[in-house]
Fold each of these.
Amino acid sequence: MKNGVYVLIRKELKELFYSVKGLFFFLAVSLILSLFSLLLITNTELSLLDNAQALYMISGIVLALMMLISVVYGSDAIAGERERYTLETLLITPLTMKDIVTAKLGFGVFLYMLLFAIAAPYIIAVGSSGQNMTTGLLYLFAIGLMLSLLYSAVGIFVSQRIRSFKNSLLVNLAIVLLSASPILISPALRQSSIGKIADYLNPFADAINTLDAVIIDSEPFSMQTLRLAMIAGVTLIIVATTIAGAKKEAL
Amino acid sequence: MKRLILALLASTIVSWGQPVSITLHQPSGTMKMGDKPIFFSEIVNHGQKPLMGIVLYLSLVNLDKGKEHPVDLEDWSAQKAVHIDMLQSSETFRTTWPMRLIQSGRYGLFVTAVLPERDMPVTSKIVHFDIAPKKTIVPSRIWPVALGMPLMILLIMLFIRIKRGRRYD
């Protein structure tokens, strides 16, 4: 039912591009990145940062925004359709629930690509006179792609099991907060063996640490394989679980 | 000449009186903004007794002509002071001082040791070095993007609004 999946992705695209509300989120993203970029040149302390540091910071902001967009979209994917009474329309099509979930995941990845396209000019403007700009962009794209799939899958998984959009969003935001918690803890505390294991097991921490390693410390790819494998592995497991566990919805 | 001899004699007597000596070493090569050189210091106990509770701290002075001033190490160094519990007689204690070079100019760096039972602190010789400027974030490249991107998205939103009306809102 590949065609059906594409049709559903096209429907989501239309809803995004033809509605002012859909694009408002991306205006907000652009304003956040503009504010950060302007702070870099107007704030005395931030203006002292070297390019690599600024590039790393803006990459972290892009990942955080990606997480937010993915879970908000994921939360709405099924629970939102159910609340708007549009899920029934989808269910009477020849599409199976697995197809619907796959299409929603595909659109979640597209949203990240759109976010990346908006962020890329900022990243180039901030980091082009420093080190590792191209490498940083490539890593950010690849890592963001995997994480967007992961967080969209988590969002959809929760959205299918919790009936209201509001509650689904709350649960998903709690998951985001939990996975982003390493950045709230000081790096010194995370140097303990438990901290290091927790960092390796958490895909978001892996993403942040990989960007730090390649952008600031110029570490080669060979030193990132364990962290990248962990992100890819967790993403694969969560996506497979979400698609395989797509429940049949009653009309 | 007499004054010079007296001054030399006085400084020698002062250094003889100190139980410790400190040397500060700078990394080789030129330094530029954004670099993270590691300086290191060595403190030696010349006395017969062990010394307890020594505090070593780093000081940085900007020596640009007409703008000489002490520099707040807040952004420059994560390690500003070191506590040595005990320094045995004839023992040498080595400390590394990782720095992050924030601004260009001519600088002087030195380490001071405070001994709890002494009235006079002991300082190392001042290490002089130059930090070459480096182009970091370029404002002329950021302004167009920071203003242009939101404006472009806003224009797309307005265009959709005019073209489609409220159909998908």
Note: The two ends of chain A are 20 Å apart (CA to CA).
Amino acid sequence: MTDELRQAMAALGAGAPHASSTNPGATSDLSIDEALLLHSIGWEPVDLVFGVGWWSIPWGAFQTWQAGEVTAASDAFGGAMREASEQLRHESARAGGAGVVGVEIDISVHSHHVDVTLTGTAVRRIGEKPSGDEFLSDLSARDFSLLIRAGWMPRGLVAGASFVIAPRRSARQWAAQKGQNVELPNLTEALYLARERAMDSMQQMGLGLHADGVVNVKLREGPLGHNPRIIQFVAVGTAVKLADSGHRSVEPMMVVPLDDPVLAFEAASLRAKPGS
Amino acid sequence: MPPSDLPEAATERLGHGAWSSALSVPDFASTLALGLEPVGFVQGYCVMQWSWYQQGTTAPFLGGYGQPVANAGSYSEVYRCPHGMVSAEHRTFGYNWEQDWLETSWAQGWGLAYQRMMEEAEASGAHGVIGVLDAAAPLAGSSTIEYSIRGTAVVVPDSPRPSRIFSTFLSGARLAKLIEAGYTPVSVVAAMSSVQMIGYCITRYQMSGQANMGWLGSVAGVSSIAQVGKAQSAARHLARAKVRAQLGSDSLHGAHLDQSTREFGEGDMAIQCVIKGTRVRRFKDFNPLPHPTTVVPLR
Amino acid sequence: MADEEIGETEVATDEEAAHPFFEGAQLPPDAARRLAELEDRPGHKGMFTSDLSVNEFLLIKEVGFHPVGFVMGSSIYHLGIQTRRWSQSQELAKLTEAMYNARELAMNRMDAEALELGADGVVGVRLDVNYYEWGSDTAEFIAVGTAVKAEDGKSYRNNQGKPFTSDLSGQDFWTLLQTGHVPLGLVMGTCVYHIAHRSLGQTVRSAGQNIELPNFTQALYEARELAMTRMQDEANELGATGIVGVRLEEKTHMWGDHTIEFLSLGTAVVKTEGEHQIPVPQTIISLDG
């Protein structure tokens, strides 16, 4: 190790990198672990890439008393996601990448606009000129390398969203249900359908990419910040496809780890409870 | 040794006694295993005045209404309204421009703090600084920002000092792996970009959801807000270009992007991006990593 | 703005220091009773208590130590306000001293509990400050940790005859010993500093120019260097070769924006005899998330 360290120190004086460097000027947000893992499967990072999409939602889409799904909002979401993804693919291609891994997805929905920002690292097989058809994936470089080892390939980011305005209960319904523990079937149905629709538009995107499946689906749901009567469902995942070579086992080994997460400490926890 | 403006207390502290290191114990252990020895905790600070508005510019439209913004940086765009004169409040022109005087101020504050930390490291005879942490935060009141940079100075025993000492955000096992993989850390790099956007009528209508209301005609239903998208992308591209300009033919490792958007008024915003990372240089062939063993922890 | 004295002059005091309850190095009777229950005596089977996790417990056993008990110390301090000049940056020496003494007292009382158990050291020490609604300007300084004893019968106490203290977790303790270092004590240095307010004239003159304010830079820089130096002096007194895990914390407590405590903390260590080789770790990927 010390030999390498001395070599490294000597290189500080040299003006240029070693001749074996295949991608001078590369910029990546990968950790060294991720860079090593990527290299272990024969890949390398090329550039930090971005995609941004801001789409407007017409007035009146959310500003209504009527219950039900707000299709203008899911359309705007779809548009912003598509625009940001296209930019990301475009930037990856320009940097000479075969695709983008570790895409960080930032979605925010406001009264009149939806914005989507995608940030990731373009990667390629070492020294290889890519052939086009860039893939996108929100899997970390670590997950990406495991997936490749197992014989799978990411195809693209898939996402779907739906926004529902919760129905109001009439005064009579309210009076009848007050103090009772009953199901609110209107609400149940509205949310159920919205969830199905978000998942379905995600699935449609995956099918469009000729994927074999979607992994790492994350479902974000809950009331929107600016209006608690609006409930959002956003599903995002990575579509994957099995390579021609078929699935290979990664042969896991069982271990017992001895490390703990660091525990936070509050002096207040030592204080006696009131009354004791 | 370069001329130094370190406080007296710093020169005193670095002079003698036990070394100190901000490394965690695991990092400390792998730093030792790598063959580096800590010599001291080093730090640099710089407090800068901070204001969003440049002296002497009450309005950005010095070049005249509808002209590109005066003293903008390399990025500047003008958006022209398709409607003609509608009313006095109607925004006939929109502007996107790079605020390079803010970028310069940021680079100066960060740069001075960094330089001071490196001077402390030089003074302690170090080969480099590892585990660098940086921060920029308002200090006791809003019109100042303090830039602070800290790290642990290290030496490589029995090795000549490089002509320029190195610095890196990495420490411990990560640093060891970087070197083992054939990269030497050169320096930490950081750049800030600032883009201001004054929305024109279409952007303002889109941001307030009125793009499909009647007389406009040109935009209906959901639509892409092009001006904001361009401003947001430009800020990121500018920051990326600025860090890349500091790389030479080396690479940037472990880049980290921080973005913040400040909206002031309907359809107007200021976007700030900071990208930082460690500039690394390949010094030997990549040592291929054996396939890592996959494990399932039993918890 | 003219120089104007803000705040009242009060000296910080330890309200308990002169109390018979704490005379000498005696422990409070309840604490002594609790600790006595933990010890093995003829006719009484002791046991240990600790806030260690199972993983930490096993790792501490791995390096030849046995936990003997959960120990703590506390000190309730009255922190007054020292005279500050509106437009001057300066150290508030009395407050610095008070903050230092309060922590020192809490640590000493924790040490006394550990000594009572015959411990060689205390691991996982955490220092905290607690404010209570009932006491204005009062703060409770707390130190807690797990006392440990070497199983080989050798003494690991430091050159002041006290058990070593360290804020290292069980994992960190294990790792440190693998590198051939042993902890000597938790060392700290503090500096309470008042940052000058800027006069209206100054603010107006420099408005719109984003320039460095060298006086501010210098003042804060110096405050942090002082805190670091004091910590380092403590380590030198213990005969340490170094300090690991140094943290520099900044706290405003209850003094407002312009008065800041800079606290630096770390574990002083000394290198033991003999060569230590850390085995090359194996690369693994965990599949649990």
Note: The interface with chain A takes residues 53, 55-56, 58-59, 72, 126, 128-130, 140, 142, 144, 169-171, 284-287 of chain C (CB under 8 Å).
